[in-house]
Recover the amino acids of this structure.
């Protein structure tokens, strides 16, 4: 067996049976070995940022890593922004990065680069496989490390001669390391501070349905309030699930939400900080005199901790759940508010919502709180261009669930090639482009950071008009049927039609903003 065959067989044996790929010459033996191991499904992406973002979306929905196949340093580099998002989301992911054969590296051929430096920026584990005889073990360790608690990005650099040489062996992937239990002393500390001026700040496993139910029981029994991190990896929402507010993105709004809080209890979350520094605003969002406690760190069993806490402080309490309710189907102008109402009115059962709507998405949470139960994926690391790829990966992971991809226009253009993969794989994704023709958030940020604003040349850098982007043509060109909606009624009609028809669809929702 050659190295490439052992790599793929070890991946499959370890439960990694999807590979989002964009190969080159150094990965040809991996490509060839796909025909020897039919259990591995390889999905071609037309840009590496699509491969890495799809692997992120896949992991968010399965809890298991997908592999990526990337071409040397430049291929890995193209995938870095979405690897960054995956790392910040603490999802498991295994990169296989092809490299030159060992003897070729010293010739400094054109594609030679410092792969380890690029990998190190976004990986929790990096290894260059140096011997065909050991490549199976290397892959097994990559999968095990990626799949630990918390999940990590593991990057295996695979020289071409390690792939093509014979004498490789398949290795067994060790079982998943379970999350560490929270010590009783920590439960004691947190139990002692629960009350009306306490917030449980939730992220990671704590915003799964089980986590939210336990947290809501604690809240119901003690008067503590619940808040979720601004950009959760995957949050359970909808009727029958506790409706927990996500901390607002804008620092002033976030600070208002946290005003008067005396005890902030972190559950799988980091202390809330502003995304950026602004003149005259603090970076830390909790009040200065607020005591911060840690119930569980990422990688610890936050759900078990919340359950134990609920059992201790609120055994009889009943969590407050979101009632089923939907907005009326709106009519008239298509605005961020009416778009949210269309989504809330029509969101199907068990939908996976991938939210990269940015400024157009501010009404979505309220409009969907009572929709049928669904999962919500967000841009955890803030590097835009994750939405379309993550929707692609989520649809590969859950072929029986509808994926709704709510996508800001500027961010869509980073990884628009994801649509082609959706078409080729016939994925059930309904994309709504929030077409406001601008980098709207940055227009606000220009003022927030105290920069001079209103200048024509500055404005040009934030405007997506002249020429306007034709998303119907772009989607059609990539194989995805597309329509354009300019009123709330049109969006409702097109959204409903796209949801019932299998396969990918795109709706260019031309939004009226401002006035
Ligand atoms: C990889 C990456 N590049 C650039 C940015 C900076 N950035 C943040 S938001 C934004 C524009 C977003 O515009 P759009 O997606 O149209 O959403 P809108 O602000 O209009 O709601 C840019 C360029 C980023 N966050 N990540």
């Amino acid at each position: 067996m050659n190295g490439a065959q052992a790599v793929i067989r070890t991946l499959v044996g370890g439960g990694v049976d999807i590979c989002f790929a964009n190969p080159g010459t150094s990965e040809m033996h991996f490509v060839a070995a796909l025909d020897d191991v039919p259990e591995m499904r390889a999905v071609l992406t037309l840009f590496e940022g699509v491969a890495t973002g799809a692997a992120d979306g896949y992991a968010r929905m399965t809890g298991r890593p997908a592999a990526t196949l990337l071409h040397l340093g430049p291929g890995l580099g193209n995938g870095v922004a979405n690897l960054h998002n995956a790392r910040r989301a603490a999802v498991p992911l295994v990169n296989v990065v092809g490299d030159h054969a060992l003897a070729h590296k010293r010739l400094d051929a054109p594609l030679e680069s410092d792969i380890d430096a690029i990998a190190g920026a976004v990986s929790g584990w990096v290894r260059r496989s140096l011997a065909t005889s050991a490549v199976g073990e290397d892959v097994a360790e990559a999968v095990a490390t990626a799949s630990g608690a918390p999940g990590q990005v593991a990057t295996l650099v695979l020289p071409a001669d390690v792939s093509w040489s014979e004498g490789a062996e398949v290795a067994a992937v060790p079982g998943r390391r379970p999350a560490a239990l929270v010590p009783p002393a920590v439960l004691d500390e947190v139990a002692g501070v629960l009350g009306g001026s306490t917030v449980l700040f939730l992220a990671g496993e704590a915003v799964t349905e089980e986590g939210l139910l336990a947290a809501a029981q604690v809240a119901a029994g003690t008067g503590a309030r619940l808040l979720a991190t601004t950009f959760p990896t995957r949050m359970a929402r909808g009727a029958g699930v506790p409706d927990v507010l996500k901390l607002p993105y804008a620092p002033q709004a976030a600070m208002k939400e946290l005003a008067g809080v005396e005890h902030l209890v972190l559950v799988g979350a980091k202390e809330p900080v502003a995304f950026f520094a602004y003149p005259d605003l603090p970076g830390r969002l909790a009040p200065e005199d607020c005591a911060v406690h840690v119930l569980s760190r990422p990688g610890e069993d936050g759900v078990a901790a919340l359950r134990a806490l609920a059992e201790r402080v609120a055994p009889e309490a009943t969590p407050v759940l979101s009632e089923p309710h939907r907005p009326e189907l709106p009519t008239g102008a298509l605005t961020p508010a009416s778009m949210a109402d269309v989504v809330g009115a029509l969101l199907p059962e068990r939908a996976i919502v991938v939210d990269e709507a940015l400024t157009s998405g501010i009404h979505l949470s309220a409009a969907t709180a009572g929709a049928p139960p669904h999962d919500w994926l967000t841009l955890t690391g803030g590097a835009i261009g994750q939405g379309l790829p993550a929707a692609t990966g989520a649809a590969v992971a859950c072929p029986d669930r509808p994926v709704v991809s709510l996508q800001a226009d500027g961010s869509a253009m980073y990884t628009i090639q994801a649509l082609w993969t959706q078409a080729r794989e016939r994925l059930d994704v309904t994309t709504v482009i929030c077409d406001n023709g601008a980098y709207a958030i940055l227009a606000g940020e220009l003022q927030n950071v105290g920069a001079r604003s209103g200048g024509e040349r500055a404005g040009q850098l934030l405007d997506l008009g002249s020429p306007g982007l034709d998303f119907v043509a772009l989607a059609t060109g990539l194989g995805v049927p597309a329509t354009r909606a300019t009123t709330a009624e049109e969006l409702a009609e097109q959204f409903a039609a796209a949801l019932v028809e299998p396969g990918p669809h795109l709706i260019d929702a031309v939004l009226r903003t401002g006035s």
